[in-house]
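Need tokens for this chain, all 113 residues.
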Amino acid sequence: MVNLQVYRGEDQTITFTITEPDGSTAILLDSRGATVYFVVSNTLPQTTATGGKLINKNSTDGNNSGVVSFTLDNSDTDLEPKLYYYEVYVVFEDGDIYSAEVGRFWVRRRGVQ
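Here are the structure tokens for all 113 residues:
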């Protein structure tokens, strides 16, 4: 689990390497027709939940090294400063869903520790 921190109202790019469930190798995102999602919510995200997502980004730009990036703009991060939770999950072309990463997502005020 990786904990993330962003400053309220600031742009941020977050990069992940998506690995197989056992962590052994990177998933070949390009060759598997995958869409990768990054969601932030008030509670621990659940991959198939439809409501309560404060940030909801997706990317089909992952590569065959399993690397995918999400760009959060200032409107995405303009949330009340507090603790949220995030999830990165993959939906493959065949419909399989894999939760690759879950963690804490802190939104901070600039100049406040």
